[in-house]
Design a protein that fits this description.
- The structure holds 3 protein chains of 3 kinds.
- By secondary structure, chain A is an alpha/beta fold.
- Chain A has helices at 3-13, 34-44, 58-65, 119-122, 127-130, 147-153; strands at 48-51, 72-74, 100-104, 107-109, 114-118, 133-138, 143-144, 161-165, 170-171, 179-180, 187-192.
- Chain A has one domain: NagB/RpiA/CoA transferase-like (Rossmann fold), CATH 3.40.50.10420.
- The longest helix of chain A is centred in the N-terminal third of the chain and has 11 residues, at 3-13.
- Chain B has 3 domains: 1-37 and 302-383, no CATH class; 40-284, NagB/RpiA/CoA transferase-like (Rossmann fold, 3-Layer(aba) Sandwich), CATH 3.40.50.10420; 391-452, no CATH class.
- In chain B, strand 5 and strand 6 form a beta hairpin.
- The longest helix of chain B is centred in the N-terminal third of the chain and has 23 residues, at 14-36.
- Chain B is globular and about 95 Å long.
- Chain C is an alpha/beta fold.
- Chain C folds into 2 domains: 2-113; 126-241, Rossmann fold (3-Layer(aba) Sandwich).
- Classes of the chains: A alpha/beta, B alpha/beta, C alpha/beta.
- Chains A and B meet through helix 1, helix 6, strand 8 and strand 9 of A and helix 2, helix 3, helix 4, helix 8 and helix 10 of B.
- Strand 8 (161-165) of chain A pairs antiparallel with strand 9 (264-268) of chain B.
Chain lengths: 193, 453, 245
């Protein structure tokens, strides 16, 4: 069965057209403290949060949290901790021993503690997954309520690769015991300023 | 073997049944808590269901739109009518790229198509990289749950398995240690893989992009390291516009595991320069299911597994008792459409309690479809003589007041006067573990008539 | 208002006391009740077993027996649900449509049609409610744990008003008991296990009497309790609402 026969079968078998519903955002609106809810949800998914008094404290605070990190990639202009520089020519396998990746997050989502980052923010697609630990930098003013708002925020982006990231990698595949650090990053810390 | 027989075997070990039931009930509870935090949860379910209904009614157009947009972004799109065609397409792509080692993230579709044995028979190594899937792969078993593939395994069993296959030291089933060992083992596989195969959670017609959701990061580890990415999807994975992801991603993980969203919701729109990305669109019986009005909405399914976690039968019989790629309630309405005879006992593996339909994030009326499959199965698949004749006879008796009155009286007489040892004997299945009610002198109708006169 | 009483076949034959309590309770509440003799069954056992088409005769007979009443009341949510949900196999004549619209489960009738919650009963025991699935998720006699609706429960509303009663909260508030009609025979192992688990929940919740709106579920639980000599009693909600202990 080829493309044509699949499409023909569908055409023959599909029901009468059903209208596409509108999403009524008023159903989901809540007046809540976005930063507070974002904190709570990020913690519930195993992420850590460091609230910065000023963005100038960033590197000192990162060092405090990750004192043993040697191979560091920073894709953020606000951090000067990079020990390795990458470009879009970088072979992803070579990032296997990266201890820490530092990435600017575009925005956070209060309802689930996720942040959105896309290829431009981390240059090599494998980076946020292959690095042992992950640091994300987020402004308090860039937190939206829910996923409906989030998709509105990214509707005009250049679509290559992007990801909603909610906490460090994890699994509960062995007897439902939650273990942080599965195949991706072992820890995720969001530095909020 | 029928579901009932498999379930009876599973129930020989009551402690394990309790353990299995409680593990899944725990997940169901987490789901309840997560859903409670969402304002407008029921509205979200209604929206999701309505969007899916729209998708099915325009599916051919959306698929063509998706294909066009994907191709514009440099993604190669393939179409497979059935499992065999799917496997061959995947194999051909691997051959063209001289691939020997494949890492695969979770995809129920490739399970359905039995892709792994097909590729292995052609000399290709396929490593399942979701931890649960790796566990069952090492155990040479199929997944017993679509989200928690190894939910039937105790941590001690995993420990033994890892000692044998990964050379770990005994740890009394320490999940942290075992997970970390798996991480090291899988890292090596990711770094050496030539191609990565993933499933597809959602395919967006408007953009030609796909979304893949994992908690472990295994899909991304595979895709971003390998030179070829093959994503396999059923035709029903389409959604019209990207903004609809907002609806589905809010529902999916909360329904599945009680998380507010999966750890990684990765949006693939374009391959990296110099790498290949392929999407294989698979029918394999879905367009036929689309033709069945009563069962069409089973194609709304987003594979969250909530119906399994809530199903009191699934929890007490285990996923393997269904002998189907997709077990549990949703599997029991999908599988008969694939092979009616083979799966004819599944729609009867339910009390029609309806919990599955109310937990379903896309509002599939699962228990009503189970009822409808039963009507079809009794007409098309040979039923046990006793069951068939008793029920046919009952139809005649219940349509006739006099006959019913006579038979009611005589069976009550027998129940009352036969010795308990016969009433509760082995021939009477009810009586194996349950007493029959004590019979009074009059039935209600006798009493009513006496009272009136 | 003329009410026709539908007593399900197995209640008529095996649990006449439930039929009696239902009738007495409705009469106490001032309802003009009639029991049309010659009634048999709603056809549910056939439908649920996949033999719906063989049940047309009994469905037709049901409509014949009850077409002339303003309301039809039945002490079993499951049978009521079957009439409402599955009588679409009959031609939808005015009689059929009326019967489907006017049939109520007993507690639903008291609550929704009579508008009463206090029926003047007293029952000084610790009671656990078994929320039978077809009543709960079929007729929506209450909110179910799966949906995020505001909490309500018709059974609880009525039972709360019973003098002396102590309603106990279960660990799993609305899990199925495993009866499921012919499921109880053809999937015997799971059916029994589900029933045992429900009973254990009631025992652990300090319950003395299990009640509910469906005698079929209660029959299944009662059979297990009696076989295992467990310290629990099973009573239909009609018996408690009709009690003056």
């Amino acid at each position: 069965m080829s493309r044509a026969s699949i499409l023909n079968a569908i055409k023959k078998n599909k029901p009468e057209s059903v209208p596409l519903p509108q999403i009524d955002l008023s159903l989901f609106h809540e007046d809540i403290d976005l930063v507070d809810i974002f904190y709570k949800n990020l913690e519930s998914v195993g992420g850590r949060i460091v609230s910065l008094n000023t963005i100038e404290d960033l590197d000192a605070e990162i060092k405090k949290r990750y004192p043993n990190a040697k191979s560091i990639v920073s894709c953020s202009n606000t951090s000067q901790l990079a020990t390795i520089s990458i470009s879009n020519e970088t072979e992803p396998h070579s990032l296997e021993s990266i201890d820490l990746a530092i990435i600017d997050a575009q925005f956070g989502v209060a309802e689930n503690g996720a942040v959105w980052i896309s290829e431009n923010d981390f240059i090599v697609r494998a980076l946020p997954f292959i690095a042992n630990d992950l640091v994300l930098i987020l402004s308090k003013n860039d937190i939206c309520l829910h996923m409906h708002e989030a998709y509105n925020l990214i509707s005009k982006r250049e679509r290559t690769f992007g990801v909603f990231l909610s906490g460090p990698s994890k699994t509960a595949d062995i007897e439902q015991c939650l273990v942080i650090g599965a195949q991706g990053a072992m820890s995720l810390t969001v530095f909020i300023f | 073997m029928s579901h009932a027989k498999e379930a009876e075997l599973f129930n020989k070990d009551e402690a394990k049944v309790n353990w299995h039931d409680q593990a899944l009930w725990f997940v169901r509870n987490k789901r309840d808590k997560a859903a409670h935090t969402v304002k407008g949860w029921e509205d979200l379910r209604n929206l999701a269901s309505a969007i899916k209904a729209n998708v099915l009614s325009n599916l051919d157009d959306y698929l063509v739109q998706f294909e066009e947009n994907a191709q514009k972004n440099g993604i190669q799109v393939h179409w497979a009518g059935d499992a065999e065609a799917h496997n061959k397409i995947v194999h051909d792509i691997l051959l063209q790229n001289n691939v020997k080692k494949v890492v695969k993230s979770k995809s129920m579709l490739t399970e359905e198509c039995h892709l792994n044995p097909y590729l292995e028979a052609h000399g290709i190594e396929v490593i399942d990289t979701d931890l649960g899937e790796r566990i069952v792969q090492l155990a040479k078993e199929p997944p017993s749950h679509i989200v928690l593939p190894a939910i039937h395994k105790t941590k001690e069993e995993v420990d033994a398995l890892f000692q044998k296959h990964l050379g770990t030291v005994p740890s009394h089933g320490d999940p942290r240690y075992l997970t970390n060992e798996a991480r090291k083992h899988l890292r090596d596989k990711f770094l050496k893989a030539d191609a990565a195969i993933t499933g597809v959670n959602f395919a967006v017609a408007e953009t030609g992009g796909i979304v893949v959701c994992t908690n472990e990061g295994n899909a991304d580890m595979g895709v971003h390291l390998a030179k070829v990415h093959i994503a396999c999807m059923g035709i029903e994975k389409i959604i019209p516009e990207e903004k609809h992801l907002g609806v589905f991603l809010r529902l999916l993980a909360r329904s599945a595991t009680g998380q507010p969203i999966t750890t990684y919701s990765s949006h693939f729109n374009k391959p990296v320069q110099g790498k290949e990305m392929h999407i294989v669109i698979v029918d394999n019986g879905r367009s036929e299911q689309l033709s069945r009005e009563a069962f069409r909405s089973s194609l709304h399914c987003i594979r969250c597994g909530a119906c399994m976690n809530t199903c009191p039968i699934y929890r007490r019989s285990g996923g393997h008792s269904y002998k189907a790629t997709i077990p549990g309630p949703i599997g029991s309405i999908l599988s008969p459409g694939m092979d009616l005879k083979k799966h004819s006992s599944l729609p009867f593996a339910s009390t029609l309690c309806g919990s599955c339909s109310d937990v379903c994030p896309v509002k599939i009326n699962i228990h009503e479809q189970l009822y409808q499959w039963r009507q079809i199965i009794t007409k098309n698949v040979k039923q046990p003589v006793v069951k068939r004749s008793i029920l046919k006879m009952a139809g005649i008796v219940l349509a006739n007041s006099k006959l019913y009155g006579f038979l009611g009286r005589s069976s009550r007489f027998m129940l009352k006067h036969l010795p308990k040892s016969i009433v509760n004997s082995k021939i009477n299945t009810w009586g194996k573990a349950r007493d029959l009610p004590k019979v009074e002198n009059d039935n209600f109708e006798d009493w009513y008539k006496k009272r009136k006169s | 208002m003329k009410v026709g009483l539908f007593i399900p076949c197995y209640v008529n034959q095996l649990y006449p006391k439930v039929g009696i309590a239902t009738l007495e309770l409705l009469e106490k509440l001032g309802v003009d009740v009639d029991y049309p003799t010659g009634q048999t069954c709603c056809g549910q056992p056939l439908g649920n077993s996949g033999y719906e088409s063989d049940s047309k005769g009994s469905c037709q007979l049901f409509v014949e027996n009850f077409k002339n009443y303003d309301y039809i009341v039945c002490p079993s949510g499951s049978c009521v649900y079957h009439v409402k949900k599955h009588f679409d196999i009959l031609e939808q004549t005015e009689d059929v449509v009326n019967v489907r619209n006017n049939i109520y489960e007993l507690s639903q009738f008291i609550f929704q049609v009579l508008g009463k919650t206090n029926v003047g009963a007293s029952f000084p025991y610790k009671v656990g409610i078994h929320k039978s699935c077809h009543g709960l998720r079929g007729l929506r006699l209450g909110s179910c744990s799966e949906r995020m609706d505001a909490h309500y429960s018709i059974e609880e509303s009525l039972l709360k008003e019973v003098k002396g009663i102590q309603l106990k909260t279960l660990n799993r508030v609305d899990e199925c008991c495993g009866f499921g009609g012919t499921f109880s025979i053809f999937e015997e192992a799971i059916s029994v296990k589900m029933g045992k688990d429900r009973i254990q929940d009631h025992l652990s919740s300090d319950v003395e009497v299990i009640t509910g709106t469906d005698q079929s579920c209660l029959m299944h639980l009662d059979g297990l309790i009696n076989r295992n000599n467990q310290p629990l009693k099973v009573m239909h909600i009609a018996e408690i609402l009709n009690s003056t202990l």
